[in-house]
Design goal:
Shape: globular
Strand content: 25-35%
Radius of gyration: 22 Å
Number of domains: 3
Largest sheet: 8 strands, mixed
Length: 402
């Protein structure tokens, strides 16, 4: 049965890459592939009693901020990876600013005007150093449609760095359902591939023609890092340099500072922090991923006053390893910091400053609210467009005791 078509006028942006509209009954509909102020024909893709989701399939009145998507796979029925290929870069950043400020106001009660800053002067393409593909039933790699298991095969991903697109992975045939994650950091001569399959009997294609490396090498703020391709690392080429600089500025360290780095990953911030400390300073990184911890320990080998702890970030870990810290940096996953760990961190009497890094506006605002409820205040807030063509950005807040 064909999905219903409805004519709609689009309003403010909403989480999920869509824009808010209402049908004749007053029901809220979240419409992807549109822009505020546009009038569109939308195809309903998901229905509930009080709300629905839809795709704009025909633009009746276009916004001046609409552009032709640079990628032929973007749009309704296409790849679900990019929300805003049809939006000018300047307008993308204004939309992200509106989304962030709404979360800060509604969730945390913060009245901040936060410009979404560009990482560079480029087009927003060719900057992603990690791309995850999945094989379709014909053995071609691609990406899933939005909110679907269906795979859209692609010949080239325009947001990926050239070193990934140059692999031409679709010259090979892959077992259906195989996931292929290509990682290419900026100091490595060739990408790494992380290949997984649900079918234990499946066999990958002959990869002899591909130059595969086990580890990736990169540099940020004059510090060199070796990173397992299976460990978390910021995906935008310029993200490590930008974020490490902002974290150091926000922490305002002294030579004898004692720092806790929660969700430290492969040691990006831990290593940058260690370079700022003197012989009486100390930095401890806590990370649950054993693979990431292995990379972090390798990156920090030979440095005094550094420890990497393999542990979940929870109340016990904070109470055990952070009780005398003077500074803290947190960079949690999109789900945000564990609440009990946050409360334990906020209560440490020696703690002077916290820098919070996040890629999710909702949990970022929620965590800031919790810190403020436990005696902290936000003194600086920055945001960078490190996920061009999507609704996401990277947020950095500096907190001190209120």
């Amino acid at each position: 049965m064909p999905m219903q078509l409805v004519e709609l006028s689009l309003g403010k942006p909403a989480s999920g890459g869509g824009f808010v509209a209402r049908d004749d009954t007053g029901r809220v509909i979240f419409v992807r592939h549109g822009l505020p102020g546009e009038r569109v024909m939308a195809r309903i893709t998901e229905e509930h009693s009080t709300w629905a989701r839809a795709d704009a399939v025909e633009i009746l009145e276009a916004s001046p901020d609409r552009v032709k998507p640079p990628c032929s796979y973007a749009g309704p029925d296409g790849c679900g990876g990019c929300d805003y290929q049809h939006v000018s870069l300047n307008r993308q950043r204004k939309i992200k600013q509106e989304l962030l400020e709404a979360q800060l106001s509604h969730v945390a009660g913060l009245d901040f005007s936060v410009e979404i800053e560009a990482a560079d002067s480029g087009s927003g393409l060719g900057r992603r150093t990690r791309v995850r593909f999945v094989a379709d039933e014909d053995g071609r790699l691609g990406f899933r449609r939005h909110s679907s298991h269906d795979v859209v095969a692609v010949d080239k991903c325009l947001v990926a760095v050239d070193r990934i697109t140059a692999l031409k992975l679709n010259d090979l045939s892959w077992p259906e359902g195989t996931e292929v994650e290509a990682v290419a950091l900026n100091e490595s001569s060739s990408p790494s591939l992380v290949i997984t399959s649900d079918d234990a009997a499946s066999k990958e294609p002959d990869l002899d023609t591909l130059r595969l490396t086990k580890l990736q090498k990169t540099i940020a703020r004059d510090e060199r890092y070796t990173v397992s391709p299976e460990a978390f690392w910021q995906i935008h080429e310029r993200a490590p340099e930008i974020l490490a600089g902002l974290v150091l500025k926000g922490l305002n360290l002294k030579k004898a500072s004692r720092v806790i780095d929660l969700y430290c990953g492969a040691g990006l911030f831990t290593k940058a922090i260690s370079s700022q400390l003197g012989p009486n300073g100390r930095v401890t990184g806590i990370e649950f991923s054993k693979v990431a911890c292995k990379s972090a320990r390798a990156n920090l080998a030979g440095r005094d006053g550094v420890e990497i702890i393999t542990s979940r970030v929870n109340q016990r870990a904070v109470n055990e390893h952070a009780v005398t810290c003077t500074h803290a940096v947190i960079d949690p996953p999109r789900s945000g910091i564990d609440k009990r760990a946050l409360v334990a961190l906020a209560a440490i009497p020696t703690l002077e400053r916290i820098v919070s890094v996040s890629c999710d506006a909702g949990t970022f605002a929620r965590d800031l609210k919790l810190f403020m409820e436990h005696g902290w205040k936000v003194i600086d807030l920055r945001a960078f467009d490190l996920f061009e063509m999507t609704e996401h950005a990277e947020y950095i807040a500096v907190l001190v005791r209120s």
